Amino acid sequence: MTYRVVQWSTGNVGRRALRTIIARPDLELVGVWVSGPAKAGRDAGALAGLDREIGVAATTDAQALLELRPDCVVYTAMADDRLGEAVEDLKRFLRAGINVVSSSPVFLQYPYGTLPSETIEEIEAAAAAGGASLWVNGIDPGWANDWLPLLLTSGSERIDAIVCSEILDYSTYDNAKVLFDIMGFGSALDDLPLLLQPGVLTLAWGSVIHQLAAALDLRLDSVTQHFERLPTPEPLRVGDRTIAPGTAAALRFQVVGLRDDHPALTLEHITRLHPALAPDWPQPAGKGCYRVEITGDPHYLLDLRLDSDGDHALGGVVGTAARLVNAVPAVIEARPGLLTATDLPLTPARGLVSGQCSA
């Protein structure tokens, strides 16, 4: 069976999602939404960085795409600085009877315990009205800290603590808004960016902690957040910007689920703009990795190294996009409503072994 899909936005993740949609033999790309006139009218193949045309032109006309009645929208539009608008987009698709896989807003990966019940109920009501499903995921929050740790726990006799870490050099991450406006790199250490405002970390990554706890039947007493920032002693060149000495260039944060004052579940990010910064913090495997460590019996330590064209940051972008697109058939076939990772079966990359795919 072939499913009709619309790609919504063509930024870093959207471009790669387009490639996977085009490559999968069970998906038909029927539309592409773009946010401005610079990309409107361009062929999807060009927007995906392919050397051939697909025959689907991008448009800024959202209503025209909804009227195509696709089976699914792959929604990868930036949401960090437009959370309310993004949620309204998702509800609009659901009410129209269109299933959605999305990389944002990330708190919808597992909203229970982090979002107000009325917000969740509004999304569920939209899904029920249209008989459609919504699934938000990616790599982090996403499969690096939902399926990977839960897979390891399936071989556990006893679990004392789980730590899921992202340990990456972000100097090649191609998103200036995220790096400088949201994460605050290059700013004074006492100038807190959006990401580090009170409650934001637990809103964005608390979903990871609550989902792991629910899957493991673990009652938490509280979820807390902590962070530390360090400056660069030397000027750093990141993209077209220079990070001045004395300004933020390394960030470590933790979202921790506590049980009886014990850190039972921890989500940690260790982000540097240069590998020499913060030498005492945990170091990655290779240039960057996602790490899962389970203390207990047995003790597990899994380092997931990723790379795309020599760039670990791009590998994370590709992994996020592919995770969404490869789940499209399962989400379409799932019950209507707001889905989480544990609601879906395995979603392998069907038809994408080299020599099979069309990309």
From TrEMBL:
Q: Which GO terms describe its molecular function?
A: kinase activity
- Organism from which the protein derives: Nocardia terpenica
Domain spans labelled 2,4-diaminopentanoate dehydrogenase C-terminal: 146-348
Transferase is among the record's keywords? yes
**Which keywords does this chain's UniProt record carry?**
Kinase, Transferase
Specify the protein name.
Answer: Diacylglycerol kinase
Q: Which CDD domains match?
A: nat-AmDH_N_like (cd24146)
Q: Is-annotated flag, keyword Cell inner membrane?
A: no
- Which regions span the lipid bilayer? none
Q: Which SUPFAM superfamilies match?
A: NAD(P)-binding Rossmann-fold domains
